[in-house]
Design goal:
heterotrimer, A alpha+beta (135), B alpha/beta (527), C alpha/beta (275), A: 135 residues, alpha+beta, N-terminal domain of TfIIb, three-stranded antiparallel β-sheet, two-stranded antiparallel sheet, C: 275 residues, alpha/beta, six-stranded mixed β-sheet, 10 helices, 39% helix
C-alpha cells in the first residue's frame, strides 16, 4: 500500500494553481487543491479538478516513431535520437543553421524551454526559436 | 502582470477588457468577485457579454477591433475633466505632450460611432477608472490578438500612466497569461530576439556572456524568425527542418489549412508531444514526452511567480521528460549536455538570468517566488515599477491613433467572427478532450449567434450551419444567445473537427507578429 | 496537543491496530494530507492550523473511502475533528465505511474556530487531544445567521441566491471536495435535471439539486464553502436544508453514531448497525 500526495502546479492556464496529485500504488487517482497555496487557496476550476485524467489516457503517445515508407513506425529511443540528430546535422551542413527552426512550448517547464533554446542557439546556431505566446 | 493576482481584492476599480475572466482564468475571477464584495467597481468592455460582465458596475459592448478608439475616448474625458495625475506624469513619464496633442484631437462622437458605445458610457468608464485611488486594468487575448495588438497594449499603458495607476498595490496593467508557462517560455528565451531574461541576441555583451557560458566562440546575432515567418520560410523553401515541442499549430494557428500544407511540405519535421495531435500526424519523427505529472521542473505563472512542478508518477509507457529528450539529441548532434536533473539546469538558468538569479529549488519550497529576484536574500517582487520607477527609466507615452482591423465585414462576408475558450476546455483540446469529465461537459464545437440573426437565417438552436471566410469553410452547430450582438458570432477554438482557425485571418501585428485571431469576416449558410 | 495525538498513533501502530494513519503533514512548505505508515516517523505531522486554527483542513474521510475501496480488509486510523467524526458516522450509516475498520483519533476545535464554523459539535466523541468546548454559542450563531436570512422577503432571498449562483464557474468543487459525496453516478451529471455545456449554470437547479441530494448527508464541515472559487455561501444553503431536516424529522446528520435517515427509511436496513 503506497498512498502519496505530490504538490505541484497546474498545467492548464496561467493562474498557476497548486494542488496535490493523489497517487495510490503508482496510479493517479485524484486531484486535491492546496489549501495553503497563495495562488488558489484551496480552490480549483473544473479543468484543475480533473487534471489527473488526461495523464493516464490510453491515447498517450508511448513509443518514439519514425516515418518509414510514408507510415509512422515504432522505433527504439536510440534510433529516434540518432536519426533526429543526424538529419538535423545534414540540413545544417547542406542549407545552413537558419534552415532549421524550433517551436518551443508554453506547456513545458522553464528548464526544458531553456534547454531547447540553448540547443537552437549554441548547438544548431540559429535564433529561429519561438512559441505560441501569441496564440 | 505588473501586479499580483491577490492584489485585485484591494483595487477599488477594475477595468476588464478583452478577457473572459470567469471562463479562462477562473481563479483570477475569484479575486474580482471578492473585490466587488469589498466595494470595488468593475468595468467590463467586450464585444461579447461574458459571465463576469453580468457583475460589472458598467458593461460596454464595443465592436471587435475598436479598442484604441474606446481607450482614446476614455483618455480624452480623463484629460478634459482634470482626472489625470499630473504629479505622476511630470515625475515619472515622458512623451506626454505628443500624446496629449493626439488625444486633444479625439472627438468623443467619433469614438462612439466607431465603437458603438454611447458617449455617456465612455464618460462613465473614464470617470470611474479615472477617479479610482487603486485602479487596475485586466486584459487578455481580446486585446492582443489583433493587427493593432501592440497599439492596444500601448493604449492601456497610457491609460494607467495618465491616471498614475501603476507601481502601487492593487493597480497596474495586468495581462492574464493564457498558458500555464507562457511567462516562463518567454523568460527562458523561447523567442527569436532574446536570450533568457530578455537579454537581446543582438547585444554584444549578452551574446558574449552566453557564448562563454555555453562553451562557444560566438552565437548568432541576427534576430530569428517568428512562427508565422517560419511558415512563410518553409513555403519559400528556405527552411527544411522544424522541431516542434508541445505545440499544435495545425489547430491553434490562423489559416490552419495553410499551416498544415507548410508542415506537409517541409523536408524534416520532428514533433515532441504527449498525444498524437493533428500536428504530430504530419511528423517524420514523433517523440513521446512526459506530462507535467511525470517530471520535475518549474513553471512561471501570470503574476511572474516561479513555482515547482514535481514528479508524481513514472513516465507513461516509454515516454521521457522533454529535458532528457533534448539533452540526448543535443549530445548526439555535437553539443554535449549532461545535466543530472532539472535542478541543475535551473542553477545554470539562475547564473545567466538576472531576474532569476536569486532563485533556487531550495527557495521554491512553499509559496514560490515572484521575479525579479536578483539575490538569494531577495524576497521577490509582488508588483513592478514601484514608486513610478520603470524598467526603462521613465514611463513612455505613445500617441496611438485608431486603425481598424485588417479584415472588415462586407456583402460577401457580413458577420464579424471572434474566437475564445469555453470553461471545460483548454486551447486545442489535446489534454482536456482526453479527460472524460471535461469531454462530458462539452464534446463538440459550436457557434454563438444572436437570436435576431438566427431568425433571419431561419435556423434553430442546435442546427448545423456552414461558416465560411476568405480562407476556408467549416460546419458546426449553432447556439442561440444574446451574449453576442446582432452581426457578431463567436466560436471556441478547441475542436479540430470544426476548427475555426481554418477561417481566422493570419494578418498580424507588424511588431509583435501576433495574428488577428479575434476579428475576421465570415458568411453563414444554412445546410 | 500534537504530542498527545502522536502518542496515540504510535500506540495504535505498536498494538498492530491500524495499517496506516491518515492525517496531515508539512510537506514542501505547505500542509498536505498524508498516509503515515508503520515504521515511518511521524515527523512533520500537523493538525491543519496555519495562520489561524483549522485553515488547512482537508477531506480526509473522502481519501479514507478511496483507500477502503482499494484495501477493504485493512483498518485505518484517521485524524478527526468534530465535523470529521460526524462525517464518519454518516459514512458508516451509508455503508461507505465499516465502523470496525476505522479508528478516529479526535481533536477538539478551539472556541474561535467553533464560532467561526457555527459548529453544532466542535469536538469528536473519540477525543484524544484538546479541550471540549460546548457548542452553545456557535449553535446560537448558526441560528442567527439563518434567522437573518429568513427575515428577507422571498423576492430578496431569491435575488440574493440568484446573484450568488450566477457567479458559479461550474467547477464541481463543492461535490469534488465533499467527504459525503461518493456516488458513482452524480445527479449533477444527469441531463434530465441539469443542462450541461454552458455558463452560467442552470439557476437555481444546479445548486438546489445538490442541496436536496445532500439534505440528510451534509455534516456542515464547510469544506465546500472553502473550495468555492466564486465564494458562494454554500454552507448557508446547506444549513437551511439541515434546519428543515431537524424541524420536520428531528434529524441531524452525523450527530449520533446509530442514526438512521428519515429519507431512507423505506430502503433496506443497513448491513450492520453498530452496537
Amino acid at each position: 500500500m503506497d498512498y502519496q500526495n505530490i504538490l505541484t502546479t497546474c498545467t492548464y492556464c496561467g493562474c498557476g494553481c497548486n494542488f496535490f496529485l493523489e497517487v495510490l500504488d503508482g496510479k493517479l487517482v485524484g486531484t486535491i487543491p492546496c489549501k495553503t497555496s497563495p495562488v488558489n487557496e484551496g480552490k480549483l476550476c473544473i479543468k484543475g479538478w480533473n487534471v489527473h485524467q488526461f495523464v493516464q489516457s490510453e491515447n498517450r503517445l508511448t513509443h518514439p516513431m519514425i516515418r518509414k515508407n510514408g507510415v509512422l513506425e515504432k522505433v527504439s529511443w536510440d534510433e529516434a535520437f540518432d536519426y533526429t540528430a543526424s538529419r538535423l546535422s545534414e540540413i545544417k551542413a547542406e542549407k545552413g543553421s537558419d534552415a532549421i527552426g524550433f517551436l518551443t512550448s508554453a506547456k513545458v517547464t522553464n528548464e526544458e524551454n531553456y534547454l531547447l533554446q540553448k540547443f537552437a542557439r549554441a548547438g544548431v546556431g540559429t535564433n529561429n526559436i519561438d512559441h505560441c505566446a501569441r496564440l | 502582470m505588473t501586479n499580483g493576482v491577490a492584489e485585485l481584492e484591494g483595487s477599488d476599480a477594475i477595468f476588464i477588457i478583452g478577457s473572459n475572466t470567469a471562463t479562462s482564468h477562473p481563479l483570477v475571477a475569484t479575486r474580482i468577485f471578492r473585490a466587488i464584495e469589498n466595494g470595488a467597481k468593475v468595468l467590463v468592455a467586450d464585444p461579447r457579454k461574458n459571465q463576469i460582465a453580468q457583475f460589472a458596475h458598467l458593461y460596454v459592448r464595443h465592436k471587435p477591433g475598436t479598442d484604441v478608439a474606446l481607450l482614446n475616448g476614455m483618455m480624452k474625458v480623463i484629460l478634459d475633466r482634470g482626472l489625470a495625475d499630473r504629479a505622476f506624469i511630470d515625475a515619472n513619464t515622458e512623451g506626454f505632450t505628443e500624446f496629449k496633442t493626439l488625444i486633444d484631437q479625439v472627438s468623443l462622437e467619433d469614438c462612439a460611432a466607431i465603437t458603438g458605445v454611447p458617449v455617456s458610457q465612455i464618460e462613465e468608464l473614464a470617470q470611474i477608472y479615472g477617479k479610482a485611488d487603486r485602479g487596475s486594468i485586466v486584459y487578455c487575448m481580446g486585446i492582443t490578438q489583433h493587427t493593432n495588438g501592440v497599439n492596444n497594449v500601448k493604449s492601456l499603458a497610457n491609460l494607467a500612466m495618465v491616471t498614475g495607476n501603476i507601481g502601487r498595490e492593487g493597480t497596474g496593467v495586468n495581462p492574464l497569461r493564457g498558458q500555464n508557462n507562457v511567462q516562463g517560455a518567454c523568460d527562458m528565451g523561447g523567442l527569436p530576439n532574446v536570450f533568457p531574461g530578455y537579454q537581446p541576441v543582438t547585444l554584444g555583451a549578452a551574446s558574449k556572456k552566453f557564448a562563454d557560458a555555453w562553451g562557444k566562440d560566438t552565437l548568432p546575432t541576427n534576430i530569428g524568425l517568428t512562427i508565422p515567418e517560419m511558415f512563410s520560410a518553409i513555403e519559400k523553401d528556405k527552411m527544411q527542418g522544424l522541431w516542434i515541442m508541445g505545440e499544435n499549430p495545425v489547430v491553434s494557428d490562423p489559416d490552419a489549412d495553410h499551416v498544415k500544407k507548410a508542415l506537409e511540405d517541409i523536408e524534416f519535421l520532428v514533433v515532441q508531444d504527449i498525444f498524437m495531435t493533428p500536428t504530430a500526424r504530419l511528423a517524420d519523427v514523433v517523440l513521446p514526452g512526459a506530462s507535467f505529472a511525470e517530471k520535475d521542473g518549474t513553471f512561471a505563472n501570470t503574476e511572474r511567480r516561479v513555482m515547482r512542478v514535481r514528479k508524481a508518477i513514472d513516465p507513461v509507457g516509454e515516454s521521457k521528460a522533454d529535458w532528457e529528450i533534448i539533452q540526448e539529441i543535443s549530445t548526439r548532434f555535437g553539443l554535449s549536455m549532461a545535466y543530472a536533473g532539472p535542478s541543475e539546469i535551473f542553477d545554470e538558468i539562475a547564473r545567466l538570468t538576472p531576474s532569476y538569479s536569486g532563485i533556487s529549488y531550495d527557495r521554491l519550497e512553499g509559496d514560490g517566488i515572484q521575479w525579479p529576484c536578483p539575490t538569494p536574500a531577495h524576497p521577490g517582487t509582488p508588483y513592478l515599477h514601484k514608486d513610478g520607477h520603470f524598467t526603462r527609466g521613465k514611463g513612455l507615452f505613445h500617441a496611438v491613433e485608431y486603425k481598424g482591423p485588417a479584415e472588415v465585414v462586407d456583402e460577401a462576408y457580413p458577420f464579424w467572427m471572434t474566437t475564445g475558450r469555453v470553461y471545460a476546455h483548454y486551447h486545442t483540446g489535446t489534454m482536456t478532450r482526453n479527460s472524460a469529465a471535461l469531454d462530458r461537459e462539452v464534446s463538440e464545437g459550436f457557434l454563438e449567434i444572436n437570436p435576431a440573426d438566427a431568425a433571419a437565417l431561419d435556423i434553430l438552436d442546435g442546427q448545423k450551419i456552414c461558416v465560411a471566410s476568405r480562407r476556408g469553410e467549416i460546419e458546426t452547430r449553432i447556439m442561440i444567445t444574446d451574449r453576442v450582438e446582432k452581426g457578431v458570432v463567436f466560436m471556441p477554438f478547441h475542436f479540430e473537427e470544426a476548427n475555426v482557425n481554418k477561417l481566422t485571418n493570419p494578418a498580424y501585428d507588424p511588431i509583435a507578429k501576433i495574428p488577428e485571431l479575434k476579428v475576421c469576416a465570415v458568411s453563414l449558410t444554412k445546410v | 496537543m500534537i504530542d498527545m495525538v502522536k502518542e496515540k498513533i504510535e500506540a495504535l501502530f505498536k498494538e498492530k491496530k491500524i495499517a496506516g494513519f491518515l492525517g496531515l503533514r508539512e510537506q514542501n512548505g505547505q500542509v498536505a494530507p498524508h498516509l503515515f505508515m508503520e515504521g515511518q516517523a511521524l515527523e512533520g505531522m500537523c493538525l491543519g492550523d496555519r495562520k489561524i486554527a483549522g485553515d488547512a483542513r482537508y477531506p480526509l474521510n473522502k481519501i479514507l473511502v478511496t483507500l477502503a475501496r482499494q484495501y477493504p480488509e485493512e483498518t485505518f486510523g484517521i485524524l478527526a475533528r468534530g465535523c470529521d467524526e460526524r462525517g464518519l458516522y454518516g459514512l458508516f450509516r451509508l455503508n461507505q465505511l465499516d465502523p470496525d475498520k476505522v479508528i478516529a483519533v479526535g481533536i477538539a476545535c478551539p472556541g474561535d474556530l467553533a464560532l467561526a464554523c457555527e459548529c453544532k459539535k466542535p469536538f469528536p466523541e473519540a477525543l484524544v487531544a484538546g479541550e471540549k468546548i460546548q457548542a452553545g454559542d456557535s449553535i446560537k450563531a448558526g441560528r442567527e445567521t439563518l434567522a437573518a436570512m429568513d427575515t428577507l422577503d422571498l423576492d430578496k432571498r431569491f435575488s440574493f441566491w440568484k446573484n450568488q449562483f450566477s457567479k458559479c464557474v461550474k467547477c464541481y468543487g463543492c461535490r469534488d471536495i465533499c467527504p459525503m459525496c461518493f456516488c458513482r453516478e452524480c445527479s449533477l451529471e444527469c441531463e434530465d435535471l441539469v443542462s450541461k455545456g454552458d455558463l452560467p449554470v442552470d439557476i437555481p437547479v444546479f445548486h438546489l439539486t445538490r442541496a436536496m441530494h445532500m439534505a440528510d448527508r451534509c455534516v456542515d464541515c464547510g469544506l465546500c464553502d472553502e473550495a468555492c472559487p466564486a465564494d458562494i455561501p454554500l454552507r448557508l444553503l446547506y444549513k437551511k436544508t439541515a434546519q428543515i431536516m431537524d424541524i420536520e424529522f428531528g434529524f441531524t446528520s452525523g450527530i449520533n453514531k446509530d442514526e438512521r435517515s428519515p429519507l431512507s427509511m423505506m430502503g433496506p436496513a443497513p448491513k450492520k448497525v453498530a452496537k
